[in-house]
Amino acid sequence: MYRSVLVPIDISESDLARQLIPQVEAHTKAAKVHFLAVIPSVPFYASMGLAYSGELPDRNGLQAKALQKLEEIVKQFTIPEGRVQTHVVYGPPKDQILKVAEAVSADLVIIASHQPGISTYLLGSTAAAVVRHAHCPVLVVR
């Protein structure tokens, strides 16, 4: 039985979040469930050729919007409020997922993965990186 489960959510991919619901509910009967949204840093976006704006985004505004979106997604899960904790962090998704997994002493990470595309082949999959480097079991949901 798991005591602490980390569930990273890509808040821009609501379909992936819905795929997680049955697995999270099945594996977290008595566990504390930590839902995590990672806001990629500007260098991460730049590595994908997506951002070179003159202004850096407002971190507080982004964090508030991300937390609001994460909390909307979490409402879809039937987990008692007392066992749910939400986290929003900045940085490279793989690194932040692994860091938070260690911080919350996760016994399990449940992460969604979509079908590979060209960007996955070029940059690597976050789910695959978490599987390779996590210090606990990782359940990848497709």
Descriptive report:
- There is one protein chain.
- This protein has 142 residues and is an alpha/beta fold.
- 43% of the residues lie in helices and 20% in strands.
- The protein has helices at residues 14-27, 42-47, 59-74, 93-103, 118-123, 126-133, and strands at 4-8, 32-39, 84-90, 108-112, 138-141.
- A five-stranded parallel beta sheet has the order 3-2-1-4-5, with helices on both faces.
- Helix 1 links the parallel strand 1 and strand 2.
- Helix 4 packs across helix 6 (126-133).
- It starts with a strand and ends with a strand.
- Residues 44-49 have low confidence and may be disordered.
Which properties best describe this structure?
142 residues, alpha/beta, 5-stranded parallel sheet, 6 helices
Question: Secondary-structure map with pairings?
Answer:
Layout: E1 4-8, H1 14-27, E2 32-39, H2 42-47, H3 59-74, E3 84-90, H4 93-103, E4 108-112, H5 118-123, H6 126-133, E5 138-141
Parallel strand pairs: 1-2, 1-4, 2-3, 4-5
